């Protein structure tokens, strides 16, 4: 339990019907009582009730706002501490004034994620549920929200808990066999251990395999649009977004920097990046050169690359460049070659041209970014890339780097334990590896507390949660 009381605006700042100022800590009721005036006084109110009254500046006696105040008593609250929520009117000025009065009355400003951190420290949720809470707040598409709720409900915690329990069980058997060694009544050797670790390793490997999908669902599929100047890249971005986000002109080299925007496509978040047109030569100005470097840098981290061919441009050069792109990126990244401006050249010619380009993970599409012809086919290809993740819905999924690293650490320990077990290495050596694996899983859920890592994790969250 903390002995400080924290406060923050829990709703976003702006003009709205109501705003909520949240307090948590042992002094929450007393602090609220210093500025909240209601019949009978706030301290007399029963827990888990809402009271109508007014916020009065104790220094001047001036009424600041008429409010509803919820009183929630520990331990059955979000943080596990006494919690007060002041529902005031939603203007920025009044919200800030109420918060200031709460701080003047003795509360400390909450740090980012501090309410949720307190909930974790008070065993109201494990670390995975805390992460999922923040993911739900940040979710920009249906599927991301769905996965976050799934994790909040404990899908991943449950799976990891079962795997950690199986490992603890193996450790217990090793203990037992060491104790009973002299009596020889409990026959449990290194090979038995290796065999029993098998299903746990499989379970962890399944989880590790979900990371790429989990990351795409949570952070969005990164689709980079590249090609020669004037190919129609910015036109495609605008069409996908349904708004004039990027500047479009017939001057080659219009886009200088990368332009990134996200949309929800079929419930998945897709992040499109428009880039500077690719070209070389000494006559390029330094700004354009930097833009082109940025385009290549983005391609390195893309989940999908769209290379756009301008059907009204120099076709030989573009076919060659498309082929080079497929060779360079196609092994690791799905590629889509889009022949654009078919409204000018005709579809047959575009299809013939596309047939000349070969590559792994390659899809070819004809398009008119100007009138939208072919856009639905392109959207289908992008969606197919996301849709493979559908199978994972309802199961534990790894969604961030912290989770991936810890699962991989656990797998590495178990791999070593299995090799050692099969080689007949003594049980105490296996025990050390397995318990290190258990520790990695406990760090994941927060059963084992590494305060430095936990502080780092919560500091990236929003104030007021
Ligand atoms: N006819 C036709 N014109 C198009 C099409 N797509 C884009 N254009 C035109 O082509 C020109 C260049 O389009 P942009 O979208 O700016 O091309 P870009 O690839 O972003 O060009 P840079 O930013 O210079 O690299 C504009 O005049 C567009 O209106 C299309 O499908 N058909
Ligand atoms: Mg452009």
Would you give an account of this structure?
This protein has 465 residues and is α/β, with parallel strands linked by helices. It has three domains: 6-126, 2-Layer Sandwich (Gyrase A, domain 2); 132-210 and 397-446, tRNA modification GTPase MnmE domain 2 (Four Helix Bundle (Hemerythrin (Met), subunit A), Up-down Bundle), CATH 1.20.120.430; 222-391, Rossmann fold. The protein is 47% helix and 18% strand. The protein contains 17 helices and 13 strands. It has helices at 28-33, 92-104, 114-121, 127-138, 142-152, 155-179, 190-209, 211-219, 233-241, 286-300, 315-329, 342-345, 347-354, 375-387, 401-422, 427-445, 451-459; strands at residues 6-9, 16-24, 36-37, 49-56, 63-72, 83-90, 108-109, 221-227, 259-265, 268-274, 304-310, 335-340, 362-367. The strands form two sheets. It has a seven-stranded mixed sheet with strand order 3-4-5-6-2-1-7. A six-stranded mixed sheet has the order 9-10-8-11-12-13, with helices on both faces. Helix 4 (127-138) runs antiparallel to helix 5 (142-152) and helix 6 packs antiparallel against helix 7. The model has no long low-confidence stretch (mean pLDDT 92). The structure holds guanosine-5'-triphosphate and magnesium ion (MG). Magnesium ion (MG) binds at residues 233-234, 246, 254-255, 274.
């Amino acid at each position: 339990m903390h002995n400080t009381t924290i406060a923050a605006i829990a709703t976003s700042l702006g003009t709205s019907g109501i705003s909520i100022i949240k307090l948590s800590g042992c002094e929450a009721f007393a602090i609220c009582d210093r500025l909240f005036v209601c019949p009978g006084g706030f301290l007399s109110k029963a827990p888990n009730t809402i009271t109508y009254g007014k916020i009065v500046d104790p220094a001047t006696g001036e009424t600041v706002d008429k409010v509803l105040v919820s009183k929630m008593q520990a331990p059955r609250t979000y943080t596990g501490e006494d919690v007060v929520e002041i529902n005031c009117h939603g203007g920025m000025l009044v919200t800030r004034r109420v918060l200031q009065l709460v701080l003047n009355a003795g509360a400390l400003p909450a740090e980012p994620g501090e309410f949720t951190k307190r909930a974790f420290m008070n065993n109201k949720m494990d670390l995975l549920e805390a992460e999922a809470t923040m993911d739900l707040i940040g979710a920009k598409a249906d599927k991301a929200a769905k996965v976050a709720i799934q994790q909040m409900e404990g899908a991943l915690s449950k799976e990891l808990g079962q795997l950690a329990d199986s490992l603890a069980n193996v450790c217990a058997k090793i203990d037992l066999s060491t104790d009973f060694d002299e009596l020889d009544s409990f026959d449990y050797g290194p090979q038995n251990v290796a065999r029993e670790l098998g299903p746990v390793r499989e379970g962890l490997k399944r989880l590790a395999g979900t990371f790429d999908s989990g990351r795409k669902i949570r952070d969005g599929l990164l689709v980079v649009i590249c090609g020669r100047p004037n190919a129609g890249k910015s036109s495609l971005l605008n069409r996908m977004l349904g708004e004039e986000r990027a500047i479009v002109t017939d001057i080659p080299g219009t886009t200088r920097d990368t332009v990134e925007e996200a949309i929800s496509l079929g419930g998945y978040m897709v992040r499109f990046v428009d880039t500077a047109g690719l070209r070389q030569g000494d006559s390029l100005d330094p700004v354009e050169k930097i833009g082109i470097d940025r385009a290549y840098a983005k391609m390195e981290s893309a989940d999908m690359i769209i290379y756009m061919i301008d059907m009204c441009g120099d076709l030989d050069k573009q076919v060659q460049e498309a082929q080079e792109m497929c060779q360079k990126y196609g092994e690791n990244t799905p590629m889509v070659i889009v022949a654009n401006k078919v409204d000018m050249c005709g579809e047959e010619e575009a299809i013939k041209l596309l047939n000349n380009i070969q590559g792994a993970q390659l899809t070819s599409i004809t398009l008119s970014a100007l009138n939208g012809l072919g856009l639905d086919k392109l959207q289908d290809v992008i969606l197919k890339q996301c849709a493979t993740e559908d199978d994972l819905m309802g199961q534990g999924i790894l969604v961030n780097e912290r989770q991936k690293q810890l699962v991989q650490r656990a797998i590495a320990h178990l791999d070593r334990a299995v090799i050692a077990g099969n080689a007949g290495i003594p049980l105490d050596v296996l025990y050390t590896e397995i318990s290190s694996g258990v520790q990695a899983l406990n760090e994941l859920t927060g059963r084992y507390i590494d305060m430095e890592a936990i502080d780092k994790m919560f500091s990236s969250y929003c104030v007021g949660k």
